[in-house]
Automatic annotation (TrEMBL):
<feature type="binding site">
    <location>
        <position position="150"/>
    </location>
    <ligand>
        <name>Zn(2+)</name>
    </ligand>
</feature>
<dbReference type="GO" id="GO:0005634">
    <property type="term" value="C:nucleus"/>
</dbReference>
<dbReference type="InterPro" id="IPR050134">
    <property type="entry name" value="NAD-dep_sirtuin_deacylases"/>
</dbReference>
<dbReference type="GO" id="GO:0036055">
    <property type="term" value="F:protein-succinyllysine desuccinylase activity"/>
</dbReference>
<feature type="domain" description="Deacetylase sirtuin-type">
    <location>
        <begin position="1"/>
        <end position="286"/>
    </location>
</feature>
<comment type="function">
    <text>NAD-dependent lysine demalonylase, desuccinylase and deglutarylase that specifically removes malonyl, succinyl and glutaryl groups on target proteins. Has weak NAD-dependent protein deacetylase activity; however this activity may not be physiologically relevant in vivo.</text>
</comment>
<feature type="binding site">
    <location>
        <begin position="258"/>
        <end position="260"/>
    </location>
    <ligand>
        <name>NAD(+)</name>
    </ligand>
</feature>
<dbReference type="Pfam" id="PF02146">
    <property type="entry name" value="SIR2"/>
</dbReference>
<dbReference type="InterPro" id="IPR003000">
    <property type="entry name" value="Sirtuin"/>
</dbReference>
<dbReference type="InterPro" id="IPR027546">
    <property type="entry name" value="Sirtuin_class_III"/>
</dbReference>
<feature type="binding site">
    <location>
        <position position="276"/>
    </location>
    <ligand>
        <name>NAD(+)</name>
    </ligand>
</feature>
<keyword id="KW-0808">Transferase</keyword>
<comment type="similarity">
    <text>Belongs to the sirtuin family. Class III subfamily.</text>
</comment>
<feature type="binding site">
    <location>
        <position position="155"/>
    </location>
    <ligand>
        <name>Zn(2+)</name>
    </ligand>
</feature>
<dbReference type="GO" id="GO:0061697">
    <property type="term" value="F:protein-glutaryllysine deglutarylase activity"/>
</dbReference>
<keyword id="KW-0496">Mitochondrion</keyword>
<feature type="active site" description="Proton acceptor">
    <location>
        <position position="142"/>
    </location>
</feature>
Amino acid sequence: MPSADIEAFRKVLASSKHIIAVAGAGLSAASGIPTFRGAGGMWRKYDAMSLATPSAFKKNPSLVWQFYHYRREAALKAEPNAAHYALSRLSFPPIRQQVAPDSTFTLITQNVDNLSPRANESFFAECGEVPSTDQPHLLEMHGRLFDVKCTDKACGHTEFNTDSPICEGLRGTEQFVQRQHLDPELPADNLPKCSQCGALTRPGVVWFGEMPHHLDLISEIVDKADLCLVVGTSSTVYPAANYAYAVGMSGGTVAVFNFEDNESAQDADFAFIGPCEDLLPQVLGI
């Protein structure tokens, strides 16, 4: 059985040298971001997960863009919560030195909502400096919701875009999505276009069937890790679901922070069950 002993965990944290956190949708739940599997359920008679595929976009870009416009608008209204900021503090060497001397830290997030980068930007600005480390403090392995990618391979332009709405043709459609009502099909001319060539764009997230970002670098970091914090994820989507297992198999410690007790928590060395925004700052002690 995993332990919920905070003092015992802090002793492990203090002796750890290479710390990683693997975060999922539960990290952002307190910010009002719907969890991916709960975002609408069977929305418009479609399984929400089936919208996150290249084939779904090819078949009906209007439907997919309306879903992602809804997610963009929700993320734009959200603010980072206490769990995001706890991980930002752990990213900052002078603070991390207090709880885990001479250690490294990387947050590997499956989230695409931009809340972890916003928390880091805000916290680092408050501190007056950006931490310089031998490895990145944040890796967004599933891409970014606000990246917009041109579908014309000859162009290939990608830009970061937080416009609300991203285009006039999508204005207000988030209300239909939220009520789970059908709304009129949008012609392709009304969907977001590339600012460079005018071709149809797509959301800059990693869809099912596509390769996550930074895999080689993540693999190197996971191989070195001696402590893995699993934060707000059901650990069912690979390859991220395998990272904690890999750390445990190499002799490292796994600590789960999750709202629900699941199989990944039962296999961990430590399990802290409850809201991440409450538990993470409390248990880390920062």
